[in-house]
Structure formats: structure tokens, C-alpha cells
């Protein structure tokens, strides 16, 4: 189940467009976006403000209006919810007069980039039926994505056409190593490790390494 946060976007008349109180969520989470119009009574009473996936037209696919518009003399406020946001999504608070779009603001910074290791794991030991790997901790300066990383999940497979098998979850404060057992002897296995960000289980596997079990 995804987490939910609110983002607030203000469109101020006389061509001043300001955004504030940005927060971020992990991909596939639910996010609330609040679009707010501020201006004179005449402006607020005539214009509409909506959330859209497109800047040039109203596209509300996957967007649900959470509340009725909160309208006062100089302010119009509407809250929307978007389910399963992704890194590639784009949203705009659109200001419209009848069927014409008269202003917009790009909603940014609502999705964290999932962390990923930039180096493959390395071999610690190997036998005829097992391989033990280790890896360095995820580093904000040299690796991809946003912190914090709370755990790692090792993956391995024997054949490139096979699906990845995942090992047990290793917490970030534990010893960073994993042993894959019950393997076939004299076989190549491919290993990779994924970093897990706080809050969600989605992850991106890092580079892989091939290690061969010993022959009998």
C-alpha cells in the first residue's frame, strides 16, 4: 500500500506563478496534489484551476478530485489524488477560462529516484554447491538514486533466460554478504544486488557478476 503526501501549488494572477511545500514519494505510491488559485474576486469567480497530465490540454487520466473546490473571495483551492505515480509522470496545475488555458505550473519533485548500486558484487568464497558474495554499501555521492537505503536484496540465476531468484533481505546495518546454496557444480551463476529505499519494496538491480561453482 502506497504512502500519501500533499503537494501545494499556487498560481497567482498577474502572471506570477509560485510553487511551495513540495514533498516526494516513492514510485508506485499515492500522492495528493493541491492546486490553488489566488487573485481578485473577479478573477477567482471566473477562472478554473485543475490538475492535468498535459500542459496544452486537460488530461485527467488516473487523477481523482479528492475534495470539492474550497472557494473564498480571493482564493480557489482543489485537492487531487494520483495513484501509482512514476518517475516519468508529469503533472500541471492548469488555469482555464471556459475552454481556453490561460496559465499553468509544472508539478515537480513528487517522486524519489530509486537507489541503485553502480558496482557489481564480488566473490567471497565458492564451493561445488554454493557461492558467497559481498558488496559495498550504497553511497549517495557515487551511486544513483535518493536516500535513505534501508536494506539490500541479492539476486542470482544460472541461465540468462531464467527469472531472477532473490535471496533473503539484508538490512543496511548488517554484514553485507549473502550465500546462495544448493547450486549445481561447475556452473556459471549470475549475481546482482538491489538497494531498497525506505518506505517501499520496489528496487533496481545493480550491475551483475558471473561466478562459477567449483567442479566435483
TrEMBL record:
Classification via Gene3D superfamilies: Immunoglobulins
SUPFAM superfamilies: Fibronectin type III
InterPro entries: FN3_dom, FN3_sf, Ig-like_fold
Highest rank taxon of the organism: Eukaryota
Domain Fibronectin type-III: 117-216
Secretion signal, residue range per the UniProt entry: none
Name this polypeptide is given: Fibronectin type-III domain-containing protein
Organism phylogeny: Eukaryota, Metazoa, Echinodermata, Eleutherozoa, Echinozoa
